[in-house]
Amino acid sequence: MQQRFSQWLQAQGYEFSDITALLSVLGLILVISIAIHFIFHRIVLRFVERMAKNSRRRWRKAFFERKLFSRIAFLLQGVIIYIQASLWLKPDTAVLEWIQTVTILWVLLYVLLTVFSVLDALLDMSRGESSLKGLPLRGLFQSVKIIASVIITILAVSTLIGKSPLIILSGLGAMTAVIMLVFKDPIMGLVAGIQLSANDMLEVGDWLEMPSYGADGDVIEIALTTVKVRNWDQTITTIPTYALISDSFKNWRGMEKSGGRRIMRQVFIDATCVGFLSEDDITRLKKSKVLASYLQQKQQEISDYNQKNDLDLSLSVNGRRMTNLGTFRAYLLHYLQNREDIRQDMTLLVRQGQSSSKGIPIEVYAFTATTKWAEYENIQSDIFDHIFAILPEFGLRLHQSPTGHDFSSLADLKDNNLNGREDSNK
Fold it and tell me: How far apart, in whole angstroms, are the C-alpha atoms of residue 258 and residue 345?
């Protein structure tokens, strides 16, 4: 084509050397390329942009925001330049070979970028699909990106050295060990991501607790090699994906789906305050709406038992009697059963633990009707505020270690006693 162009110019009465004709052809290719660039980017892409902005379809907006159409335009420009060079320039020339090599590299680059844009757009669209929420799409797409990058790199190298890609692939066989070492983390991350998804172990949005990595918060991203967790103090913890398979972690998703969050907390009762209820105590406690039916039933049960066995109740070791601690446990259970913010369809009990030097532990085991952290803490605090305030009504008191104030009070009492004795001796 370049030779025909020179002959046509000579027929028109113009004399051009081969160099002048080559420069003219290159200039013509450049002008055509600029014109095509203008058409693509000033007309076609602006039309596509208007369609994407006015469209309600998510895929159009996603593809445009990820610059898919722009990269396809650059890809087509490279193809057009390659075709022009093949048509206009003489074959087997250094200029043609150089232009073709550059355009092939250009096309390979934008093929790779186009694949990246498609994958990124698909990932954006998948975020709104609940059916795809549990799949590790980010990790899978990153794996595809790595594979595509390796393929494009092999093709680019084969273009530069003028050899078949198969020759390069055959040479890579000897480098398998090196490749496995370099891509160890991505390979392990890919396998771990598939296992996490297949076994439904972790999803974005789950509350993950992994003390070995200092992670305690919501999962915000599951990538090929890392999992990002936003902790409750708003810091970000990054965990290797394969660590979630090799190590243990706690996923609180089950608690959130159940709709109830567990309360398991103890109060320690001073053992020296535990005793039997007197008739006056029973009469007073019967005024409680929560305890009235329980005390009536229990009193009748104990009375029948004692009469049946003809026991001498003048001694406290004979017969059955109600204790203040047992009555308190019954009251607390009825109190929890009458709270609307406590789940009645889940385990609910008040139990006594093994006594120790710390006192007698009374444990509340229940589930709140909400899983929200702030509401859960408020409910739990309200329950134990009530427990601390109601203990004196049963003649009970909390057990706690002596404080500096206690020792100070004892010292003051001792000083007062000594002063009183000195005054009496005088």
Answer: 11
